[in-house]
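Troubleshooting log. The previous structure file for this entry was overwritten by mistake, so regenerating from the original sequence record. Sequence copied from the archived sheet and checked twice against the printout by T.R.
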Amino acid sequence: MSPTVDELRNDIRTAVGRYERVESTAFTKEALAAICEAVGYDIDTNRLPPKPEMRAGILYAIGERDTDDPAEAQRPFRKAQLEAVAAALDATD
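Regenerated output below.
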């Protein structure tokens, strides 16, 4: 059986050194920043960029998008995107 969205998020969180969450919640800016670092997408960590910018950068860095345009990543990651991020981090159990 494939992992749920919540399980994928928690797998990704632990892969980048963040804490698992009991409740279902999207990634915080800090978690997205940790994922950016893990996939090699440079951001200014002194002042974290908006979430769409970081989501777009993550998807670009792992080859899921051709551009890091934040306009294409306004919504939280979809399940297929979470699976791609988890695979890039080798975060699935």
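The chain has one domain: 5-89. Archived copy saved in two places this time.
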